[in-house]
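User: Let's play a game. I give you a shape written as tokens, and you guess the letters that built it. Ready? Here's round one.
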């Protein structure tokens, strides 16, 4: 529980969620409470791009967002951990995107979908 936000952070999340409910109402629909346990996430997590993509797809299903195109890029992933030059994960690092965490654009709009970018070190 040490990774939970402080009281102000929790209040901000509740305010934003309330705003979404007010704005979108019925469009949000009813979603079950999803817990971080084996019932909702039965797959063993692999700390690489393939594991992160599997987790992303499962989270999309739980959130009712299966129809939203979301691609995942793991920045700095080496070939041994599941990346390739096409994903920006060359073993040498020479062709991968080298961005500082604070400069990395995490969610990039791509027309009708999104690109979600994570640093390889965040998967450990």
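Assistant: Ready! My guess for every position:
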């Amino acid at each position: 529980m040490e990774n939970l936000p402080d009281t102000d952070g929790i209040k901000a999340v509740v305010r934003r969620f309330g705003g979404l409910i007010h704005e979108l109402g019925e469009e949000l629909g009813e979603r079950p409470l999803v817990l971080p346990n084996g019932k909702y996430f039965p797959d063993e997590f692999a700390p690489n791009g393939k594991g992160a993509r599997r987790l992303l797809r499962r989270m999309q299903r739980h959130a009712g967002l299966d129809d939203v195109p979301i691609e995942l890029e793991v920045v700095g992933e080496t070939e041994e951990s599941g990346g390739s030059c096409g994903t920006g994960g060359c073993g040498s690092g020479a062709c991968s995107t080298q961005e500082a965490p604070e400069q990395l654009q995490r969610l990039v709009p791509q027309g009708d979908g999104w690109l979600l970018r994570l640093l390889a070190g965040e998967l450990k």
